[in-house]
Design brief:
The complex is a heterotrimer of chains A (498), B (359) and C (375).
Chain A (H helix, E strand, L loop, with lengths): L4 H21 L12 E7 L5 H15 L2 E7 L1 H13 L7 E4 L4 H6 L7 H6 L10 H7 L1 E2 L2 E2 L2 E2 L6 E5 H7 L7 H11 L12 E4 L11 H10 L23 H13 L12 H9 L3 E6 L2 H5 L12 E5 L5 E4 L4 E4 L17 E2 L5 E4 L5 H15 L1 H7 L12 H5 L1 H7 L3 H16 L4 E2 L6 H17 L5 H19 L1 H12 L3
Parallel strand pairs in A: 1-2, 1-3, 8-9, 13-15
Antiparallel strand pairs in A: 3-14, 4-5, 6-14, 7-9, 7-10, 11-12
Helix pairs in contact in A: 2-13, 9-10, 18-19, 19-20
Chain B lengths: L16 H6 L9 H28 L4 H5 L15 H9 L1 H35 L6 H21 L3 H19 L9 H10 L5 H15 L5 H25 L4 H8 L4 H12 L1 H17 L2 H6 L7 H7 L1 E2 L2 E2 L1 H21 L1 H13 L2
Antiparallel strand pairs in B: 1-2
Chain C lengths: L3 H16 L1 H28 L1 E6 L2 E6 L3 H7 L4 H4 L1 E2 L5 H23 L5 H24 L5 E2 L1 H27 L6 H9 L6 H12 L7 H6 L11 H29 L3 H9 L4 H28 L4 H7 L10 H10 L3 H34 L1
Antiparallel strand pairs in C: 1-2, 3-4
Helix pairs in contact in C: 2-16, 3-16, 5-6, 6-16, 7-11, 7-13, 9-14, 11-13, 11-14, 12-13, 13-16, 15-16
Classes of the chains: A alpha/beta (498), B mainly alpha (359), C mainly alpha (375).
Chain lengths: 498, 359, 375
């Protein structure tokens, strides 16, 4: 989970040699272009995301003279803090590393600097190496680039290979498989400490990062015709929430049922808690971003090295027919992208932490901020950072997915690396990836309405029907308040529909 | 043997063992059992108080894996203590830890001085001078203020224009109608109004204060926090110091005034020195409140003026709170306050006592 | 030698200042409080009547009347603010009728006194109406299949928390006033929790209450509760919040009550002991009446602060399970975080209303009479 100083220092000699290489190609080591320039960059509290920024800031300083201050705030406050700082004109924050989802609000307010030209001229960034999904969806809005990807985010299912073999089962391909495996494994002692362990550990804490899990499950039921079909609303002028249908109901049932096979306080567990449970050997299955792959090989925190397998998100043999709003079996028409008759919809949850720059900052500060973010994303730095679990950076470059040596050097066995990267590649290659919600004030849709309703469902305050109705009514109310037409326009723009 | 006439013989029964356990040894000294219970209760609560702090201290010395693997109580016995968290925060991240720390020190101390200065002056005045603000004037003032606010928010007038117009309006109205206002309020009402400001939940005023500072361009500065903290804690100073001043006899001041000293002289040279215990107690209380304040700092600062409570909260990474760093920061926050409290301890009980009891 | 003109000018200024002393002493405090209380209050009021929206170049505020309040009391946020209602059982009806009846009788008694002061009557009426409404709310939202809203949860924190804190704080003070060794040690130690920033206390308690790796976990598991999570039960979660809050605030009550107890004259107590009075009698007849005014004052301060609780529920459970531990301040904060500024201001104003009524009533009905009785 976390490394101690000596590991970071062990890494820094590798960094040092990379630095020399970079320094040689940089425009003259004596010439410090940003001497005396201070950049305030805000992100949420580390170590994930903040740690690599903080670690590399001194190196960047040595290289360019710019002083980078990394300000961290709790995750749930980040969106508002950036917005109020920029909307109110305070402008203490020069740049931020945040979710591409929020790009909509910031771009509409005119707060983000348009980076299209800079990126076009930036050879060191190697934009072509960035996977197309991230390049097109995470970095751009309305055809212009506003952000630079530092991290590739989407959710997968991880499992204990050894326990699975013991049970004689196959890795889950559908959500019913997932539940069956969880049930079979629940209560077994999986880490040899004499205590029974858990079938499925999914973070379900309110106001944390739990609310993406439900979409990870629902996507397979609700979206089958490709990314631009969208998984949150219909794309006609009704913009009806896709929550009041048998597909979403099935997803809620699955989600609710996983709690039975989880730790008793699962609804109070943060993503960090479930990760430490999994790498501590106490879970059979988990649903998470790419971090588990790299955390599992960390000898300081993990007892499951080489025992972890990864698969793309399980799918469903039945999908929602948008005409009839009923579940129908998968065939060539209903599931054109199905794999072996099962519809998968990998979910690019959150999109992946990316860097954006305040358009109202001084020009020199903007240049320095851009240089820093580009520096962080360049393969020399990024390819190392994505192999360290603590950084929270997950693979997003094609070179990171092809080059196995990066991963074996980091301590992954070749088999584990192939498995892990294979799952990521399979997700990235899927034409049916679910794009995260990207409409103005999407925070209110997901973090308020969806998250609260799910929390109440898990607390047994609402039944499944009531939950669906609550989300549907809440989203409709927001659409009305913010203007359905504008929201629909943004929704279609994000999906690339003209 | 017979006693002298006139004396009253008291016949005390021989105490049994049980009786001796329950009976006081002497007047004012409790029975043995009572003493055991008293000590037991005190020690039990001391344990309750100290255990969380012990846990914080111990956690700051643990490696992540030691924290995650379940409760480990004793350093060197259950786990090997490590200074990694301390090193990370105080050496590696030196600037990012020092900046909030200095900010906290500056904002807390300056705002305390300000609050105590303004507050004790006001408290002294309220305890010595009889004020008679007219109710009518006050109502007119509030109305004019409301009109100014409305003009600013709904019509978009710049704040200085709205304020000037509002003040001018107020002045004119009071000039014209002032003599009509009969009912006056007294010192007690003013005092109550000041103290009642404390009832205001910060969340009500946080956003407008944010907007106010934003208009003035003072967001994320020390000034904003200092002024806000001074204001928020002013009612407490007034409350406690008022009771204190009210209990100080006026004779000294009266004789000084007969000798021709001005109010200011009397206050600074005679009354204040007498009030040292009260000032110390109040000052410490206000310092602690300002040092530990979180919500307003959250609203009003982002990068440059970030204070320690914000840094503590920021250790809550969404992918898992980092207990070891958090514990170090909390311990760092407690230490100076404890030292100041110990230094001022002898003033404290007496000061608060006089303040609250005489109410 | 200074010019006589200069001297007289300086004297003139000094004199002018001296004449204005009464204003100079008090105006800074008045102005500062006006600027930072009345002014924000009015703006907040306006915000609660408006809808906030992001727009290119900044933001816009659209006047929306009482829409935000309607949403809280009658609309889609009613379950969040007031709770979910169910039918009132027979017991509920008994309690409601009892309380409402009691309030009515109390008001009638006040009216019967003859010389009725209008503001006093208005105040009592508002208080009675609010308490009555809250009792009905409690009856309708406590039980099976229904849930409390943030309003009721906050009141639970205030009522239960303050009661527990007063009981324990007073007991500790009574223990510490005995002639025991190390009294100053205990005094200092007991005061420590108040020194820690509330956010820090909240995180410390989250660590302590973690039943998988916290220090109490072995005890918890030993009691057979390994599969039971306090964070999943609404009332247990609230209890944990109250425990954390009490841990932090008992020192405050302890210190003040200790000072009050120490200021008691020993002679009366010794005389009573000589007369053979038992401990309880002494407490009831001598000690308690003399510390009552202090107790009332300190509890008023505590109640005022208790309404503002936010750090503990936020950190311990993020307001969960569901929204069971959300206090009003946390509710407003959550709304602010997603830029529903109008809604946030509306919740904040409701909190202000309840706090003002409760605290002013407490002050007028309990604190003042005790002070008068003492004086």
């Amino acid at each position: 989970m976390l490394r101690i100083g000596r590991v970071a220092r062990r890494r820094s000699w590798m960094l040092g040699s990379a630095m020399v290489a970079l320094g040689a190609t940089a425009a003259g080591a004596q010439d410090k272009p940003f001497e005396g320039v201070e950049v305030n960059i805000m992100t949420f509290t580390g170590p994930q995301i903040a740690e690599p920024l903080q670690r590399r800031a001194p190196d960047f300083n040595a290289l360019t003279g710019a002083q980078v201050n990394v300000i961290t705030v709790p995750f749930s406050d980040l969106y508002t803090r950036l917005l109020t700082d920029w909307a109110a004109g305070t402008n203490s924050i020069d740049a931020g590393v945040f979710a591409p989802q929020w790009m909509v609000d910031y771009v509409q307010g005119g707060y983000l600097e348009d980076l299209t030209d800079r990126v076009a001229q930036d050879e060191a960034l190697q934009t072509d190496d960035i996977a197309p999904f991230f390049r097109e969806f995470s970095q751009q809005f309305g055809g212009r680039t506003y952000m630079i990807t530092l991290d590739g985010d989407f959710q997968m299912v991880y499992y204990r290979k050894d326990v699975l073999d013991e049970l004689g089962l196959e890795p889950p391909r559908t959500w019913d498989d997932y539940l069956a495996i969880a049930e079979a494994a629940h209560g077994k002692d999986m880490n040899g400490d004499g205590q029974g362990d858990y079938g499925s550990c999914i973070s379900k804490k309110r106001s944390a990062q739990a609310y993406w899990a439900i979409t990870s499950i629902a996507g397979a039921f609700v979206q089958s015709q490709g990314t631009d079909q969208g998984a949150f609303f219909t794309t006609d002028e009704e913009m009806a929430p896709l929550v009041d249908n048998p597909g979403f109901r099935r997803a809620l049932e699955v989600y609710d049922q996983t709690t039975q096979y989880g730790p008793p306080d699962e609804i109070n567990l943060d993503v960090g808690d479930t990760r430490s449970l999994f790498v501590g050997g106490r879970c059979m299955l988990t649903l998470d971003w790419g971090d588990i792959g790299t955390l599992a090989i960390d000898p300081d925190t993990s007892v499951v090295q080489d025992k972890v397998g990864a698969v793309p998100l399980p799918g469903s043999p039945e999908v929602l027919d948008r005409e009839t709003m009923e579940l129908v079996a998968c065939d060539e028409q209903t599931c054109p992208h199905a794999v072996d008759g099962i519809n998968h919809a990998p979910f690019a949850a959150f999109g992946g932490w990316s860097g954006g720059i305040n358009a109202a900052a001084d020009d020199q500060v903007k240049d320095a901020a851009y240089a820093f973010i580009s520096y962080m994303s360049q393969p020399e730095q990024a390819n190392e950072d994505v192999t360290i679990g603590r950084t929270g950076f997950n693979p997003y470059r094609l070179s990171q997915l092809e080059d196995l040596s990066l991963w074996t050097k980091a301590g992954m066995s070749e088999e584990a690396a192939k498995d892990y990267l294979g799952a990521i590649k399979a997700s990235l290659d899927s034409p049916n990836m679910v794009l995260d919600l990207r409409i103005p004030q999407n925070q209110r849709y997901q973090q308020v309405v969806l998250d609260t309703a799910i929390a109440r469902l898990l607390a047994d305050e609402l039944s499944i029907d009531e939950t669906m109705a609550t989300i549907r009514d809440g989203w409709n109310e927001l659409n009305e308040e913010l203007g359905t037409e504008e929201q629909l326009e943004a929704y279609r723009a994000a999906l690339g529909i003209q | 043997m017979s006693a002298p006439a006139g004396t009253i013989r008291v016949h005390a029964p021989q105490p049994s063992l049980l009786g001796r356990l329950f009976e006081p040894r002497a007047l004012g000294r409790p029975a043995p059992l009572a003493r055991i219970l008293v000590y037991g209760g005190l020690l039990a609560w001391a344990l309750v108080v100290l255990f969380p702090m012990y846990w914080l201290l111990v956690t700051s010395l643990k490696l992540p894996i030691d924290v995650n693997e379940g409760p480990k109580y004793l350093p060197f016995v259950d786990f090997a203590p490590s200074l990694h968290a301390w090193q990370y925060l105080l050496v590696d991240m030196r600037n990012d830890t020092l900046r909030p720390y200095l900010n906290s020190v500056i904002t807390a101390s300056v705002s305390t001085l300000l609050a105590v200065a303004i507050g004790s002056m006001a408290a002294y005045a309220l305890s010595r001078i009889a004020y008679r603000p007219r109710l009518g004037s006050i109502l007119v003032f509030v109305l004019c203020l409301a009109a100014a606010v409305l003009a600013m928010v709904a019509l978009g007038l710049p704040w200085w224009l709205a304020a000037t117009v509002g003040l001018a309006l107020f002045y004119l109205v009071v000039r014209a109608l002032g003599h009509r206002f009969r009912k006056s309020l007294g010192n007690g009402d003013i005092l109550f109004w000041m103290i009642s400001q404390r009832i205001l939940p910060p969340v009500v005023t946080a956003l407008p204060i944010y907007v106010m500072f934003q208009r003035l361009g003072l967001l994320d500065t020390h000034v904003a926090l200092i002024v806000t903290y001074a204001t928020v804690n002013l009612p407490i100073v007034v409350w406690l110091m008022y009771d204190f001043f009210a209990s100080v006899p006026v004779d000294l001041e009266e004789s000084a005034q007969i000798d021709g000293a001005s109010r200011y002289r009397t206050f600074f040279d005679i009354v204040l020195p007498l009030a040292r215990p009260g000032l110390a107690a109040t000052g410490l209380l206000v310092l602690v409140l300002a040092w530990n304040e979180y919500l307003l700092a959250l609203f009003l600062s982002s990068a440059n003026a970030q204070t320690m409570p914000l840094l503590v909260a920021a250790q809550n990474a969404t992918r898992g709170p980092q207990w070891w760093y958090m514990s170090v920061l909390i311990v760092l926050m407690i230490l100076p306050v404890i030292m100041i409290a110990l230094a001022l301890q002898r003033f404290f009980t007496r000061g608060l006592l006089l303040g609250a009891v005489k109410g | 030698m200074a010019e006589p003109g200069e001297d007289s000018r300086r004297a003139g200024v000094a004199e002018w200042l001296d004449r204005r002393a009464s204003a100079v002493f008090i105006m800074p405090a008045v102005l500062v409080i006006l600027a930072f209380s009345i002014f924000p209050l009015l703006i907040s009021l306006y915000l609660s009547l408006a809808r906030f929206r992001l727009a290119p170049g900044g933001y816009e505020l659209r006047f929306a009347g009482v829409a935000n309040y309607k949403k809280l009391l009658l609309g889609s946020e009613q379950w969040h603010f007031l709770g979910r209602f169910g039918a009132l059982s027979a017991l509920d009806w008994l309690v409601v009728i009892g309380v409402v009846g009691g309030l009515g009788w109390w008001l009638a008694r006040y009216l019967a006194r003859g010389r009725v002061w209008l503001p006093g009557l208005a105040g009592r009426l508002v208080f009675a109406l609010l308490v009555g409404a809250l009792v009905v709310l409690a009856a309708a939202t406590v039980g099976e299949g229904v849930s409390l809203g943030s309003l009721s949860t906050t009141l639970v924190y205030v009522a239960v928390g303050c009661f527990v804190q007063f009981a324990i704080g007073l007991s500790l003070a009574l223990l510490c006033v005995q002639p025991v060794h190390g009294r100053s040690f205990f005094r200092v130690v007991f005061f420590l929790p108040l020194m820690i920033t509330p956010v820090g206390v909240a995180y410390a308690f989250r660590m302590l209450a973690d039943m998988s790796k916290g220090p109490i976990a072995p005890l918890w598991n030993g009691l057979g509760l390994a599969e039971f999570a306090w964070a999943a039960d609404p009332w247990l979660a609230r209890l944990v919040v109250v425990v954390g809050d009490s841990w932090q605030w008992i020192p405050f009550i302890f210190i003040v009550m200790l000072a009050a107890l120490e200021s008691q004259p020993r002679d009366t107590v010794e005389a009573a002991e000589l007369d053979g009075a038992g401990g309880w009698q002494i407490f009831r007849d001598i000690t308690w009446p003399s510390i009552m005014p202090v107790a009332a004052t300190v509890m008023l301060i505590r109640v005022i602060e208790a309404f503002k609780i936010i750090d503990l529920p936020n950190v311990l459970t993020n307001g969960g399970p569901g929204t069971a531990t959300e206090s009003l301040t946390l509710h407003a904060f959550v709304l602010w975080r997603t830029l529903d500024l109008g809604g946030s201001a509306a919740v904040a104003y409701m909190l202000l209303f309840v706090t003002v009524v409760m605290c002013v009533s407490f002050f007028n009905l309990i604190v003042l009479p005790y002070r008068e009785r003492q004086a």
